Amino acid sequence: IAKDEGGRCFRFFQPMMTSKMTRRIQLDQELRQAMTDCSQLMLFYQPKVDLRNGRICGVEALLRWQHPQQGMISPAEFIPIAEDSGLIVELGDWVMVQALEQLVRWQQQGITVEMAINVSVKQLLRSNISERIQSLAQQLGVAPQQVQLEITENNIMDNMSRIMPQLQALTQQGFTLAIDDFGTGHSSLSRLRDLPMKVLKIDKSFVANAMRDHKDAQLVEAIVEIGHILNRTIIAEGIETTEQMTLLQQLGCEEGQGYLFARPMSAEQVESILLQGSIDIRNEAMA
Ligand code: C2E
Ligand code: MG
Ligand code: MG
Ligand code: MG
Predict the structure, then answer these.
(1) Where are the beta strands (DSSP E) in the chain?
(2) Is ipTM over 0.95?
C-alpha cells in the first residue's frame, strides 16, 4: 500500500516527523539550560521495601523536570532525548552529585539509607564514571556500599564487552550494581552469570501482567529462581496492589517498589517515611 501511495505518503508523514524532531531538539536545548537553573530539575525519591518485613531498604532517585511553560515532563520522554544528544553524560553527573549530597544531608539527620541511582550506558562509555563517582563519594564522605547503580538491561547487553571494565571497577570499589527493567531485554544466561550485577529489578510490565496472565506469573517465578541460582537479589518494580505484593512474596522476591508502598516524592516528603523506617505490609502471606 505504501508503495502505491508513493509520494503522497511521504508528504503526509513529513510534517509529523518534523514537529516531533523540532520538539526533541528544543527540549534538548531547554534541558541544557535547565541544568544551570536549579529550580527546574530535581530528584524525587521512591522507597524500596523489604518484602519479608516491610522495612525500607533504600530509595531510588528519579529525575523530575518542571518545565517553566510545559509543566512536568516525564523522564520517559526527556531521558531518551538526552541519551541521543549525549547530554545524558552531564545530566547523569548532575544527578550523581545531587543524590550523593542528599545522602550526606540525611546522614547528618541520622538517616542511613541506600540510594539507587539510574545510570545511562553512555555515562559508562563516555566518561570515566567509576573514577568520578569514587572520588565524589570520597570527597562527600559517602560509603560506596550505600550506593546502588541501576543500568537498564538492553543497554548493558548491547555494550557488554565495552562497559565490563567499568562495571568491574565499580564493583571492586564497593558500589552495588543492578540490572534495571530486567526481562524486557535480551540477556543470555551466560552473560547474566558473567555480569557483576548483584541485583535484578524485574520490570513493572511483568508485575502488572502476573495477576492477569498465569504464564507471566510463571515467568516471574522463573526469573526469581534463576536470579537466586546466580545468587542475585530480586527487586520487583511497579507493585500497585496487595495481590501483586502477596504473589511476589510467595515467589521469594526479596524487595519491592511501587505505588502500593509509596510514589516517588520530594526529599522532604520521603524523610518522614525514612524516619519511620518501615511500611505496614502485613498480610496472610507474611504470617
Ligand atoms: P526506572 O528506573 O525503571 O524507574 C521506575 C519507573 O517506574 C519510574 O518512572 C517510577 O516513577 C515508576 N513507578 C514506580 N512505581 C510504580 C508503580 O507502582 N506503577 C507504575 N506504573 N510506575 C511506577 P519515572 O520516574 O517516570 O522514570 C522513568 C524512567 O526514566 C526510569 O525508569 C529510568 O529509566 C529513567 N530515569 C529517571 N531518572 C533518571 C536518571 O536520573 N538518570 C537516568 N539515566 N535515567 C533516569
Ligand atoms: Mg531504575
Ligand atoms: Mg526499572
Ligand atoms: Mg523502567
Answers:
(1) 41-50, 56-67, 71-73, 115-118, 147-152, 176-182, 199-202, 233-236, 255-256
(2) yes
